[in-house]
Amino acid sequence: MKLTPKIQKAINVAAKLHEGQIRKAGGLPYVVHPISVAWILSEYTDEEDVIAAAFLHDVLEDVPGYYAEDMTRDFGERVTRIVKGVSEDKDPNVDEESAWIERKEKYLIRLNDAGDESVMVSAADKIHNLHAMFEAYEELGPELWGRFNAPSDKKIWFYEEVLKIVEQRFGSTHGLTIALESAITSFAHSCE
Description:
CATH architecture: Orthogonal Bundle
Number of helices: 10
Number of domains: 1
């Protein structure tokens, strides 16, 4: 990955906007996640807008006060379109646990309709989520599930549905498909 001015700006904006947020799996500063997603994705593409979108992929979903219009102004329409393709619509007035499955089903519909770049970002995102949960599960065991809005079997279902979209889009021999399938398998075995 080449550190261009746009990518540096995406790193800076992600770090600033995610400041103070903590990952559920592992308790690390949240910014570790978009950095890891971009790093994973950089193994499969060197497209500047796709890498920038990886750094910003959770901003529209998880950061109040920074909107698609802001992202378009700062990074352009393509980056915003990629990020919107992997963003969930969260309603702060809805119980998270009861809304989890509905949000995930909407996400899958949106991802299926999104461009290849969004599917790539989603795959890298899910790979990192699975690795982080695997590490946290090794440390915490079943206690980890108290931090999430869904049990392990529902999470595995969701990641397998994302895998179907990734495989349909890129084929079973694409590196992202293989890496995501491997991460799901490792995580599922750890939860047995």
